């Protein structure tokens, strides 16, 4: 890594931070991280990411998309690229949890992967950067009809519902009573029923079963509020 010192003052300053190459930081990171362009083509992967993704030695990944890697996780390419677009379009962090065969020993485990948009000084989107973090979550399948999805989305899939409505939808889908939902979300006893009525009206459904059908047919099928992970996940490097 190059020197971090200000060539004038000899100390690290806010000004000199702008001149520290992002790659220089990623190159020495012990966690997997990488960069894609706005076409979801790989631009850079650090060594930790090459090992994590089990990229074959000598494989030229630059300029290739997820599905061209021919690794176990490449079947999740559509989900990864949806996440890329979400980060770029929202100009914020897009979070998902993926489960696949990762590492040189190809072990199936879940990982948390946030992606951040990258822009130039004119504000134009250039692509995305990501890092990957392992976590431990007990009984994740209980939140998804006893089927463990390969991708759990932590970023709201669209702007149809507010954050509070998404919370209601998530807990309602777990067959919690309105009283239990109110307790979980610290609401008045009547609030869940009122909010569910508003949710039904938004998407022209009339029952929880119809709401479940709507979720299964949309990106909401794998959505989980990020606060669930803050409460129930042990993160470690």
From TrEMBL:
SUPFAM superfamilies documented for this protein: C-terminal effector domain of the bipartite response regulators
Keyword DNA-binding annotated: yes
Gene3D superfamilies registered for this protein in UniProt: Winged helix-like DNA-binding domain superfamily/Winged helix DNA-binding domain
Presence of keyword DNA-binding: yes
Pfam families referenced in this protein's UniProt entry, alphabetically: GerE (PF00196), PAS_4 (PF08448)
UniProt keywords, alphabetically: DNA-binding
Signal sequence segment: none
Ranges where the HTH luxR-type domain occurs: 158-215
Protein's UniProt name: PAS domain-containing protein
